[in-house]
Design a protein that fits this description.
mainly alpha; elongated
Length: 164
């Protein structure tokens, strides 16, 4: 009978997945920032790039807390989401709807991250690793704040401009 994997294994695998995703986001955000026309959106992408670099560092701390080397595992979800973002940048270049599309792509990323960080935090608590849970909760809080900030930008100006 094969080894039965446990929650700690799933936690570690998911941590590797999120680590890949955050590093992919670090590589993708500058392209989105450059493509955006709205100054508030450009600033939001720039701010989130800085935060995302800190998220990578926090994940490295979590790896250390569980006694594992930081390692990335390909995350197909983030690859799909970033590919959609690339398509939006290509298909809507120069269009008033580009910023709305960029916002939608960015929020897809945020929603995926919020789901994963919430799950990882819960598993860390279940595994008795309160310090890791705290680090993951801090990142979850930042992801939620970013999502709210993006919604505010979308509803205050970007969506209206895309309609015009």
């Amino acid at each position: 009978m094969a080894d039965r994997k446990k929650l700690a294994d799933l936690f570690h695998d998911t941590l590797k997945d999120v680590y890949f995703a955050e590093k992919k986001i670090v590589a993708t955000l500058p392209k989105m920032q450059e493509a955006a026309a709205n100054p508030q959106l450009k600033d939001a992408f720039t701010r989130h790039l800085g935060e995302t670099k800190v998220h990578v560092e926090r994940l490295e701390q979590v790896f250390e807390l569980i006694g594992k080397k930081p390692e990335a595992k390909t995350c197909n979800a983030i690859l799909g989401i970033t590919e959609e973002g690339d398509e939006i940048m290509k298909d809507y270049q120069g269009s008033p709807a580009l910023d709305a599309g960029l916002l939608a792509a960015a929020q897809s990323v945020e929603h995926d991250e919020m789901s994963r960080y919430g799950t990882l935090r819960t598993w860390a608590l279940e595994l008795g690793n309160n310090e890791a849970a705290g680090l993951l909760q801090t990142t979850l809080d930042e992801e939620q704040a970013t999502d709210l900030a993006l919604t505010a930008i979308a509803t205050s100006v970007v969506n209206q401009k895309a309609e015009a």
